[in-house]
Amino acid sequence: MDRPRLTTLLVRSVVGTYLLVALGATAAADAGPIVTAGHHLAAVLVGLLLVVTAVVARRSGASPWVARGTLAVLLVYPVQAGIGLAGASGFAPFDGRLHLLGGVAVFGTLLVTLLVQLEATTLAGIDAESSSPVADPSLSDVASPSTGADPSSADADPSSADADPSPADVATTADALGDRLRAYLELTKPRLMWLLCLLALAGMGLATATGAALDGVTVVATLAGGVLAIGAAGTFNHVYERDRDRKMRRTADRPVATDRVGVRRAIAFGIGLVTVAMAIMVAFVNVLAAALTAAAVVYYAYVYTVLLKPTTRWNTVIGGGSGALPALIGYAAVTGTVELPAILLAVVVFCWTPAHFYNLAIAHRDDYARADYPMMPVLEGVTATRRRIVGWLGVTLLAAVLLGGVTDLGVPYALATTVLGGVFVRSVVRQYATAGAHDDSEAVRQAAYRSFHASNAYLGGVLAVILLETLVL
Ligand code: HEM
Ligand SMILES: CC(C)=CCC/C(C)=C/CC/C(C)=C/COP(=O)(O)OP(=O)(O)O
């Protein structure tokens, strides 16, 4: 029978259970009668959904593990509901933590069951060959970028070679200046900045719960220092990766890879940016925030770019820590210290990063193979990478619940992580609809890109709501 229907039911069960867990943990502390009644009603509806899902799983001839998973959940669910009721009536052994643990267990089991269902239905219709890892990562080079120049000659900066424009040619000079400014701007990886700034701001928002005041100078200086530091780290990354960037379609036209900016100039630019960043952080913020910012630059530009990215398939998992640091930087900027809420926010971003990046790694799998990067889909194939996306997404959602549980974040936060988490989960599930398409096909690429955008929407939306709750509401 109808397998897509079972998949839909499982997705709804996962999201419904997550809503219960998120609302329960996040709003537990200050749950008014409306939230409590909503929690009870949702618990009944999700219970019914689980019954339907288990029945459909049994009747649809799904994989035995899907039937077992849905049945196990169905058996545990009344116990979990009982613990909740007992806890609510003050029966001591059944406190909120056990109820939370039960919710996590139900959510985790359902997510694994969904994954089994997705893989079972996908593998049924897939050409085994299309899911295999790339056989030979050292494929031929991408067509040379426009200049095609040897990287070793990059020090002779072509942008400085012809510094004598004709006075009549003002428009051309302006164009050249514009091009050069654009090239330097591109070195700073500006497209990443909005989310990293939002993360630092959310860290600052959480810090206000300590009673610390948020002043304009701290906010502006932290963001300015952070933006310059990210720019420096991005610039060093461009310099170090210029050879491999030339081999990848996505990166072949980068400023250093194409010699639009010479290596020496780029390094000097990076050093200038990081120096100004540090000066701003030390002068207008505090030493801890400055030290964390310096650590983030070293983490991304050296630990990730040089040590991890070219050598291990765990590169993005371990390297993701650099992108999580702005949470600590923002918090430290306001309080002068780092505490649990900031650490948990960083943990959310750390877990989110593989779920974010693996989509791009799938979309650009052939590119990464060409440049000989040991990215997960290159080494283990698309199916195994999607499995990891589902896993990291699940852990991210649970980390978000934990963050909600230890802070004053309330219903808007719980709803944001549920709704945007649901959109993210759905986008990943839709990647499985490309079963049968080749791993490097346009359909696989586009589906992966949709999840990439959903990942950014998830984190952006959740961070925005944290800001709203901590600074406005
Ligand atoms: C190891 C960690 C990470 C890796 C390898 C990674 C990789 C990438 C890559 C390759 C792109 C370019 C996408 C393209 O060419 O279209 C990108 C874009 C982006 N990343 Fe990440 N990323 C990581 C962590 C983060 C973190 C921690 C954040 C923010 C908290 C972040 C936010 C963004 C944003 C906002 C974009 C731009 C999206 C757009 O252009 O619409 N990334 N990432
Ligand atoms: C100071 C501070 C807060 C620094 C944060 C560092 C930072 C930008 C972290 C995010 C990690 C990231 C975007 C990696 C890009 O991957 P990639 O370099 O592999 O992407 P590429 O293939 O586009 O080069």
Please state the oligomeric state of the protein chains shown.
Answer: single chain
What structural class do the secondary elements suggest? mainly alpha
- Which ions and ligands are bound to the chains? protoporphyrin IX containing FE, farnesyl diphosphate
Helix content: over 70%
Radius of gyration, in Å, reads: 25 Å
Q: How many runs of DSSP E, i.e. beta strands? A: 0
Number of domains: 2
The succession of helices and strands, N to C, reads HHHHHHHHHHHHHHHH
Largest sheet: none
Describe this structure in words.
The protein has 473 residues and is an all-alpha fold. The protein folds into 2 domains: 2-128; 187-472, Farnesyl Diphosphate Synthase (Orthogonal Bundle). The chain is 74% helix and 0% strand. The chain contains 16 helices and no strands. It has helices at residues 3-27, 33-59, 64-88, 96-124, 170-187, 193-207, 216-240, 242-247, 263-284, 287-308, 315-335, 340-363, 365-370, 376-406, 411-431, 442-472. Bound molecules: protoporphyrin IX containing FE and farnesyl diphosphate. Protoporphyrin IX containing FE is lined by residues 191-192, 195-196, 199, 250, 316, 319-320, 323, 349, 353, 356-357, 360, 456.
